[in-house]
Each structure stands twice: as C-alpha cells, then as structure tokens.
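User: I'm putting together a teaching handout on how multi-component assemblies are represented. Below are the sequence lines for each component of a complex, exactly as they appear in our records. Could you produce the 3D structure of the whole assembly as structure tokens, so the students can see both representations side by side? Please keep the chain order the same as the input.
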Amino acid sequence: MSIIRLAFFNFKNSFKSYLSLILSLAFTILVFFNFQNIIYSDVFVLLGQRNKDYIDMLIEVCLVVLLCFLFFFLWYATNVFLTRRKREIGIYIFMGMSNRKIGSLYLVEISFVGITALAMGIGFGVLFSALFQMIMGAVSDLAVDVRFGISAKAIKMTSVSFLCMYLFFALKGFWNITRSSVLNMIMAAKQNEYLHVKPIVLLLKAILGIGVLVLGYYYANKGSRYDTLTNALLAVILVIIGVYLLFGGLIPLVFQLLVSRKRFLYHGQRCLWVNQTIFRMRKNYRTYAMVCIMGICSVSALATGFAMRNRYENLVAFDNQYTFQFLSSQSNIAQTTEAILDGKCTVAYQSSLCALVADSEPLLSSYTDVQQMHLLLSYSDIVQAAKAAGVTFAFDEPANDEVYYLSHLVLLSFITNGEAEPVTIAGKTYRQTQRIMIPYLGYLQKELGCLYVVSDREYERLKEKNDLIYYICNYKLKDDDVFNFEEIRMAFDTIVSNTEENYTARVSIDPYSNEGEWIKALHSLCIFMFLVFIVASGCIMFMKLYNDSFEEIQRYAVLKKLGFSTETLSASIAHELATAYLLPFAVMTVSAYFSVLSLGKMMRADLFSVYVVSMAVVSVMFMLFCVLSITVCQKTLLFARDNR
Amino acid sequence: MNDKKVVEIKNLVKHYGARDFQTTALKGIDLTIYKGDFIAIMGPSGSGKTTLLNILSTIDKPSQGMVMLDGQDVTRISNKALAKLRKDKIGFIFQDYNLLDTMTLQDNIALPLALDGSAPKEILARTKELAAMFGLEAQLRQYPYQLSGGQKQRGAVCRALITNPEIIFADEPTGALDSKAGKDLLQCLCKVNENGQATILMVTHDPHCASYAKDVYLLSDGTIKCRINRGNDRKEFYNRIIDLQTSIGGDFA
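Assistant: Of course. Below is the structure of the complete assembly, with chains in the same order as your input.
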C-alpha cells in the first residue's frame, strides 16, 4: 500500500476523532476569510473613503490579531495531533517502516486534515459572508446596503496565510518524528504517570501567583496622569504570569488539600473526579491558563467596543449641543446673527454671554513657558446658558480662589486621575476644583480649550482690570428643520472676520455628518473578536478534553469491570469536566472585572453592565461547550464499542 | 465448610462465532462454589478458563445454562442489576492490578465504598483495617507508580475485599509478580480465606499458585476433567497437580 493510500485510509477511519480539530480550524479560517472579504469587497465604500480607510485599518489590526491567534492555535492543535498520532503510527516501526516513512505518513495525513479544514472554512465562509457583512452592518448600525460579494483575492490570501503556517507546523511534526527514537514513539501512549508535585513547591507557586496577580490588578486600576500605558502593560504581563502560576500552584494546592481531607473526599463520586481533576490539572494547567487569558482578552475587547461606541455617542451629543456658535469682539453679534437667521429655520434654543479675556502677560498657567489665552465666564452667565439649553448646572458658585474648567470629551484618554493643575490668572493662583465635561458651551469648549468659570464677584473684579471682552452667541436649530444647513452656513460666513477691529469666528456642526461612522464599525468588530475568542476558547477546551478522554478509556473499562454503574461513572465524568470549565471561568470572571474596571477608568465610562452581559455570554458559551464535552466524553468512555 | 452456595453453575455452554464457523469454548460445565471455598481453575491454553471466569464475573453471557450467584440467575437479570451485583457481591483481582494511577493507594482501596455512598468514617476505618492486614499501612499515601508489583497487587486485594463481597474472582493474580511477591500474596489470600473473610475462585496456569487453593479443577477442551483436593500437605498437593498436568498434556503456559 502506498503512503498516500495508507494515510487516506487512516484519515478516513479516524475522521470522527479528527472532527473536533477540523471544525476548530475551519471556524478560525471562516472568520479570517470573512474579515479579508470585507477588506477586498467594496461594501463600506458607500460610507466615504475616510470611513472606509479607517474600517480597513481596523480590520487589518483584527487580522493581525487573528493571524497571531491562528499561529498559536495551529501550534497547539498540531502538537495535540502529533502526540496522538505518534502513539498510533509508532506501531508501524514493527512493520519495518523507517522514521522518515512514518514522518511522511504523518505529513500526508495532517495535510488531509488541513485541506479538509481549509475547504470547509472557505466553503462555509463564502456561504456566511453575506450574513457576516449584514450582521456587521446591523450591529454597527451603519447605513449600508449589503451587497453579497465574494472576493477571489480574499480566498487566495486566506488560503496562502493558512497553508504557509500549517505547512510550517506539519514540517515541524515531520522533523520531530524523524528525530524521535523508537522507544519514544512506542512509549508515547504510556506517558501518563501521575507527576506528584511537592506541596511546598505548590505553596510557593501559589503565594507567588496570588502576589503577582494582585499586583497586576493594582497596576490595572492605578490612576495616573503620565504612566497609564506603562501601568497597563505591566498589568497585562503580571496578570498573564499570575494566571499561569494560579493554575500551576494555587488551584492544584487547594485540590491536593481537599484530597487529603478524606472525610470530604469519601462522598459519592468525589473520590474519583477530584483525583482525576488533580491528575488532569498537572497536565493541562497551561491550557486552562491560556483559555482563561483568551477569555479575559475577549471580554476586554468587547468592553472596548462598547466604551468606544458609548464615548462616540457622547462625543456626537457633545458636539451637537449647538448648531452654530459665534465668538466675536462685536457687542452686537447676537442681533447680527439673529437677523441673518430670521425666517430661515426654527431655533430650538439659544443663548449669549460674555467672556472676559484677561491680559495674556499675567494670565499664565503653571506651564509658565506657554502663553495661553484664558476666557473667563461668570457663574451667573453659564447658569443662564445652561438653563436656556435645558441642561442642569449642578455646581455651586466657585469660591473666590476657585475656577471650574470647561473641558471636553476625548475618544480615548490615558489620564485616569482627576488631579488638576492650579491656574494663575492676573497674578492670583486659583484652584481648579472642577473639570466639567458637560457641553454647556458645546463645541466651543473643545475648540477653545481655555474656558474657565469664576465666581460673579471675581469676574467683576477681573473685569475692572481688563477691558477686552468677547461675546459668545449660541444657536441650536431644530434637527428636523435643518434642510437648508448649507445655505445658512454660507450666510453666516459673510460675517466671519479676523481683523484687529472685528474678530468674529463661527463654528458650525452639521447634524447629518457621518465622519465617525468607523467607530460604529469598530464596535461591531470588537463584538466579533469577542465571539471569535470565546468560541475559540471553547474549542480549545473541547479539543483538549476530548483528546484526553482517549487516554481514559482503559481506566473506565476497569471501573466498569469493577461493577460501578454507568450512572455513577457518568456523574463523575460530568463533575470532572464541569470543574475543568468552571476553573478558567472563575479566574476569568475575577480578572476580567479588573480589566473592564481599568478600561472604564481610561474611557471614563461605566462598563459594569457590559461586563455583566459579556460574562453572561461567556457563561452560556462555556455551558454549551461543557455539555458538548460531557456528552461526547461519556459516549467515548462509557459506551465505546471496545469498552465493554 | 459452609453449606451456603455462593455460585452454582449448571450445564454452562458458550459458543463463539457465527453459525457456520462456531467454536464451543465451554461444553456443559457444572460447578458449585460454597461459602469459604478457595478454588483454583487450571487448564491449558484455550481450555476455556478465561471464558468461564468472564461468565462467572458477569462480564460475558453464556449461550446456554444457568449461573446462580448468591441466589440470583445472572443470565436473566438486567444490565443495571448485573452492575449492582458485580459491585456488591463480587470482588476482582486482575493480573495487572488495575489500580487507578490518578489516586493514592488509600483512595484506590476506598473507592468502591465511597462510590457506594458509605459513611466516610466507616470507609476510613475499613481501609486502615485492610491495609494493616496486608502490611500496607506505610504505603497508603503513595501513588501506584511509587509501589512495587507485590504492594500493588495486595492493594488490589484490599480493594476487592473492602465491600465484603460474596466471592472474589482472581485472574492470574501472581502472573505479573516475582516468586517472593507471588508467595506473599498467596499467603495473604489463604489467610483471608481461612479467617472466613473471603470465598475465592482463582484462574491460574501456575501449579505453585494453584497449590495454595483448597480445591483445584482442571479444565480441558471446555469441560472439567477432574477435581483434586489439597488435604493437609501443600507440597504433596503441588506434586499431584504436576502429575495431573502431565497426564492431561497441552500448553499450560
């Protein structure tokens, strides 16, 4: 029989046991292909080139993440496959086959697996691409008519990327087999001895793990103005190390302590599944840690998506507080603009107020090398403007040595604490007691970045020393009445001036602008990344447990021979596998909480509800995979034909 | 000798294969085992020893005949009842010990009682009692891979005894042991049998091993050819077994 025929024969006969590997690979290829397809199709061109560029850039970032994931996933999956095949094909040694021939057999067999996975991944990817684009459009709330398009370039790119990586790992396996000793291959099946770890080693690992993890949580939530990125990076590294140490130290230690308490252990199936869990933990703790970290990443990705979306909506609301705003040295600006606007549209609300420009020489902030313009507003004026806009101004009048800074929202801020620098105005130092993010003066707050609210008394005092006053005038037009926005803007452009006698600036916000549509796409991409990583985590757990179950067949055959009922053994399997899923889930739940909390601080958003929803989704996904694992493993261990 | 019948076999027949290519492994065996018996079944390869043991231990089903175990006909009860019967009434000792490598010797011994829902206090007491009886107290916390073959097999005997089964089926219990460990194990089995703690049916090809039993049945070609009783002298019993083996012929290995 030729190598190819023998490999095909093996592949056909063991197809069922390869199915989990093939499906997992196919799923990753499907997702990868769909992201590629979006880049190469023109589905988002309708959003404008700028948005399309942003979305393509985001998808490319996602593709890099997916490529990294695919690389590690292939590494893991081919290793599992190699160990399993080594045991089975090791037997060919006795048939006089050389290592090289056995390696070739492995290479051909794994190629069948890879090609099947690629064909399935692309096939289903093509079938689901319209659905994928539609869901992405719908979730992102983008105004795009989805056109079903398959890009040949996407198929080519996906196939080439996958096959290159796959071939690399297949050749690595081939090289491994050709260099393996005969004994090594034959003994691969027997490498199942319990490796007992001394409790003191576990204890040290556990203490170190807890310490590192707590330090990671601390850095994740440490508020800072300047070191946020360093802190975040430190937190990521520490949490990853901590999670590994937790699964390698604390959790086995707890289980070993439980096992030593015989009064606890000798209760029904506990004796069996707790011991089994410890045994598996020693072999699989890296897998559990990896699944846990992937889960934390996916929940964080989802929270980022929601936070960005939330922030974007707030930004839009912030900018759209007024449709037109004017800053002018002319005291009659209100009358001029009202005259222009008269009869052209309906004004929802309007306000006008004065801003005092103190002499720039003494008006220096603590950044003394920079001369900045500071516009001072009186408390009463800002309260009036807020009232006109229907916004509550929930701040008391500042004291005479205090100022409130009218700040603005940004998409992403790395400054997480609220400490503010004192401001020196006309030789007097004021404490910045509030950093107000509410758009009382709308887009002007963002545009000027130098608006301060002082008490009425302080305003009057400063006014006596400085006579330069600017006049601010705000209009909010009814959104459904701005059909002639361009016409009004052009009319206002006639009064814009930048001379010494007349300085008049105009700000206009187009309510129908779609400049930030890409943020919506980011939101849905984050949701997809979350789902991809969670499904991938489930796949890894399933694959590992399913693969392990083949090593357990003999053990369960003995237990059945000893007369233990199928119900008892089924319950023990269910407990063991449920624990295997529960442990990473529990660690993930705690770590993801801190991750989301830190993200919330950075994005100034309350992400607790996102955290709860994402953990609910994760728990449902894990539950589904857990039930699937239990069913399949029970079938393998208790009802296999060779297991009577 | 106790008159209580633990196992009663009547006209036991077992065929293998399809109708046209059928072979008969057991050809109408009758055997009664009483409480307190220690029986060894010997026979050349292919004589039907393993088939008989598999049917007695309810792992296999006969083609014909009756197998009564503690008053129940195992050929007529459901799989669930069979599993219960196996768990409550039968103890197993395998050639390759079959201890679970994932747990300590103590947990291995305790497992049947723990799964049966007995009280932890009772399980602990019983485990320690059996370990003391078989000289395994110091090994209780060790894992199977840390034990010698003899210790593992004695552990397996403890596990078989912990539920106080009606009968213990031992399949070549010394097959994987050196002569010293084998001798120790057989002495232990004799001891528990003489103390009235176990009725034992042992399948072996080793005359030395068989000489520890009270009765030896010689199986050949699917039928029981003869039965010999030990009497008082084990060495003389051993010689008689050897003579019998020689007269029957065949491969006893």
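A couple of points students might notice: Chain B has a mean pLDDT of 87. Chain B touches chain A at residues 57, 59, 80, 83-88, 90, 92, 94, 98, 100-104, 106-107, 110-115, 117-118, 120-121, 123-124, 143, 145 (CB under 8 Å).
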